[in-house]
Amino acid sequence: MKKKFTLLLLVLFISILYGCSPSEKIEFMELTILSVNDLHGYIEQDNKGYGGLSNMAFKINEIRNENKYDDVVLIGNGDLFQGTAISNMTQGAAVLECMNAMEFDAMGIGNHEFDWGIETILAYFDGDESNGEADFPLLNANIYNNSDNSLLTIDNGIIYDSVIIEKEDIDVGIISYIGDVYSSISYDKVEDYYFDLRIVDSVEEIGSKLKNNGADVIIVNIHGGYSSNIEEYYYNADISELKDEKGGYLVDAVINGHTHSEQYGAITRNDGVDMPLIQAGANGENLGRITLNIDLLSMDVTDYDIEMIEVSDVGKKYDPEIQSIIDNINAELDNKGLAIAGESIASRFDFYAWIGNVMVKATGADIAFHNKGGVRGTGGIEKGKPVTIKQMYEISPFDNQIFLVELDYTKIKKLQNDDSLFNQIAPGVILSEGNTYTVAIISYVYYKSVTENESDIDTKLYIRDILIEDIKLKGLTGEKFSPISNPKASIDLLYK
Q: How many CB atoms lie within 10 A of CB 261?
């Protein structure tokens, strides 16, 4: 009754404002759903002033301003923090401050929210202002504690399985899940939790609850997806068929993530409007947009539109408030030059031999293994320019430690045959069948690929720290950083 009364007032107000009679009442409203997935801390503009959250915010403001009502919902899909220096060096606080200013409505949890320990991210939603707080809720409908099978949440915090966001005369229900990405997380960071992947059953239960509590529209956010053909992602089709108590379709739109794909589509429904789907790439390059046309009398979705918005389309236009936040944070970060680059780096593969040599030299191992996916980019290293700490956070963003283990020849050969890894053998070491060797291995690979043994040693050496130390030593001696032509390590033995 309250909603209908509010709706009549809205119709009367618009009639007066636009000079139409009450009989010419507004019957439809467009709800705009904006999504950001897999941002990975890419909040800064490039050197020419393109991209970044200030440019994205400019576009979001345009979309908000072009609508007559408060009818825009902004959702973060997951994997928003981990990946760049400005985010990693602040443990996500830089991203969070921008998201607050951009007025996000909610965010879900991705696999990389676990990288610093999930408690780091939960702290931003715990109600304690002293450690920085989000102005929007964190949603989790399927991550559980192993200890007591309770849903991962926090006392007195703003972490829920779902939420209803009030937008003018439309109440929007949002449910968020993490997909089948458990193996993408370092085991030591996720061993205390499990993911309940009965997502369709959960959507039916929670979605029905939201409908009963007044939600007019239901959006499902899943940090998971396929690299192609979004309609065939195994949860999406089943979710599209769910019905509410009145026989109407339960879910109106789905947001996917994780695979960094630029894709959108819709699943055909026999006796109703198709269900739109979107996954908007990664690294802040795109903004996903789903527009739902809603009959305000029945609250039924009557039509939809889907768009992939490229942030670069705004050119150098940006939101000054967001840019000021980023500039102020950058001014406080340590970004010292470590050494001068002797060559430009065109590919992350150019680092592999050097990284392996640093691991071997710092630990005294016979051979070192590192996952290729743990080296995230080139850092923009250019010949003749300083190599900075900030660049090293972009190249090696994960807080992986190095383990020392004893492995026989057969196990080493198995690791060497794993296409997801690269390795480096210490000078003078020749691998031969029947022998055992000391292996330096990154923690992500250790927990995933090695059977733990009591004799294994956690060196407490973080891979990024020793890479920074190696370049710093090169700088102190006047040597240029040239990992392609001269991948030798300058670092001393750190673990004894």
A: 20
